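Researcher: I'm preparing a figure for a lab meeting and need a structural model of a single chain. I don't have an experimental structure, so a prediction will have to do for now. The sequence is pasted below. Please return the structure as tokens so I can convert it later.
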Amino acid sequence: MKKIVLLLLICLFSPFILAQKYKDIHTLQVGDWLLVEHTEYYPYSAPGIKEETPWRAENIRRVVMKATVTNKSTTTVSFDFSVTSVYDCRNQPDENLLLYYDSRYKNDFPFYSWHPVPSDSLMVKATYDIASGHIKTYEQNSEEPYLTYSRLAFSIGLINTHRAKRYNSTQGIADASRIPQMAMPQLINNWNGGKAITASVRQEATFETQKPLYSAVIGLLPEDVTHNLYPSETRVIDASFLLPPNVVLAYTESGDSSVTERIIRRLFIPHPMEYYVENDRLHYSAFPWLISPGDSIVRVKNTDGGFNFTGKGSAQNRLYHSCSKADEVLVHQLDVYWKHSFELRDLYNKANRYLLSGVHGNTINANNDSLIHLLPLVDGFYNPSSFKPFLNEYMEYKQAESLSESLSTSYYFYGMEYRQRYYNNKHFLFGYPRYLMNADNLLDMMRMEMFADNMVEYNDFINHCPDINLTNKLKHQYNVLQELERGKNIKNTDIEFIKKKLPLMADKQKYIVATLFYGDGYTRSSAQYLQKKITNAGLNNHISSCFFYPGTPTLYYTGDDKTYMDSLYTFVGAQEGKKVLNRYGYGSNDLTILMREDGTILYRSFGGKSWLSGTEEDEMLQIVKADMNRSESDFHKGFKKGLFVTLAVVLLLLIIIKIRYDSKRRKEQTERHITELELKTIRSQMNPHFIFNALSSIQNLIGKNANDEANQYLIHFARLLRNVLSNSEKKLIPLSEELEQISLYLKLEQLRIPFNYQIEVDPEVSADIIEIPGMLIQPFVENAVKHAIAPQGGGEIILHVKQEHDTLRVEIVDDGPGIQKESTDGFGIKAITEELKLLSVLNGKEIKLEIENRQDKEDKTGCRIILQIPVS
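Model: Understood. Here is the structure written out token by token.
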């Protein structure tokens, strides 16, 4: 008892403990979205739920908007609001009418297209202060924020005596601004105050001054026109991120009360619902959990095999398991939603029995007590356990009713195929009941037939059903059954007991039919009947059968009979077998798989289309015969055709690849040629620049009448000019030639300016082998002479070359005043910078350049230039 109490406490408080793991208003990001539901409660005067609860279905207007974060700062958050759905249901007791509108199912009903509710269209942009929730900016997409729609008028009761006639009073209008203007500020304020984002905001009824409405809107209800605000509630029901759990379930995996370790499952749900944990799905007869937001339930197995529930939300589960309506104590403990659900269960059970008499030919009276309180369009939202059985009985009644007409050629409902039921449901049912029934009908079709046989109906449902819970259920089953689709291999599934049997049978037969029975015993007739069918079809030497039972053998047979039966049947663990049945289909139906000896699946079926109860022209035998009739000629024909197509495709691909390769190569050659021309252009500009500097120095000497020095300068200049012109067309020159050229240049400059220079090359540098782009170092040496040595009438230049791995490091150091603005703007620096960029593109290797003042790091003035040149 202490453990249960402790567990209850953990369950009750764990959502608050875990709240810090979930997003708050400060951690929202651009692109996050919330679904915000605003519910208004009309005055209630019809049977059913009278309390103001957000998940009741009658006398309520529910507007759901999507709020998407468009901007976020430390102090504000901005949202775009768009309408997702509108639900409006209210009664007019004086006329016994139900006014109904649900935008999700508007395509199923007539007259809904006059004033359609916008779907996912932007209506409001708003920015809020995070600290207080106050609106800082607000912008509407239209002048009026009202949503107008046409409500259908239905009679309360099963028989609609008004024939969905349009009344002047069926116009509806909802104010979409109430969420962004009134509810969102309170939600943000609560959220910022430490409450979970899913905490609801209650608003009492107030009266506002009449707002201007569309002049074109006519026939509005007085309540809507005067804007007498009804009591309302706003909640967050979904988000793009994980929401804090509002339900906690505690149970043991095995259901054994002696097990002390329990599983605790936390989940978020927007409304009351039926829920199965995975362990329960292994038991076909298991009841679902009935849960509501805020529940914390502990389930313990009793000694009699049943379950006992404790905690908040236990009352509806205990009553559901007891299948009793006499326990007034439990009824009193139910919340209003589940209380009404159980009331509807009894009401629809009574209606089932009455409709059954109509199926057998009795006249159905619309005013019968069993029918006058039914509201099938909305009652399904309360999940009464008898609702789907009632709809099945109703469809049987409609089918039987049509048989009373002389022009009818319909079959009796029990004889209808699932596909016929699907289209009958589409014809007779509307809204939620239609999709609820056809979801189950499609699940049966998917289990009983291969996908190729029912893809038309499957795609029709997925494309038109607005209920994401139903479509997700079908998509999940579709993905699971893909493993058993025609052409797939049993070896790629997790049905281990069939996979183990496969090698033992593959050497004897071409085809294998494996049946997993739901029961835990075996009978001789099953094996004998199948074997008789195979023998009569002449396939005795081609088909091998194997049978599996999830459990231990029942001692139906003894002696030779038992030996014979044991040779036919393989017994697998009950959990293992039932796990397979529940994963792929119904837990209470047999699974039969027809496959080739290599494990390739040809067909599979659950329950209703069992091979063991078919006709003489059994579908399985037809499939085997068709598969055996694939002749060698067809094989060779198909092989040759496939080979020809393959060769043609390969040849076409090779041609396309060759064309693309040639085109790419020509493009690369063109781009490389352009780059080389640009580089030559720069070098052709640099050479005259160097010659101009040299001639200026000679002119300076002649002007000083230093004729001997000028003559010597001309000799060195001629030699230097030959080197420059010789190397101008070369992409790369040896490092030794570049250094010789620099040495000649410096000697020439020494004739007019007294300065010292040193060219230091580390011993590991192979100057005659290493090649670099011509005139790469020269411009920096020229700048050192022009901007550092010449202005101060002398100095020193040191050029040091060393190799670090695959990089040649060149340092040019002077003792001038340091780098200045004009130094970096000189033609030589600009040209060499452009050259470095082009060389990087051309060679695919980046040449790095660093220019710094020595005085920034040393006690000497001057400039240091560092070139890092990649070499191979």
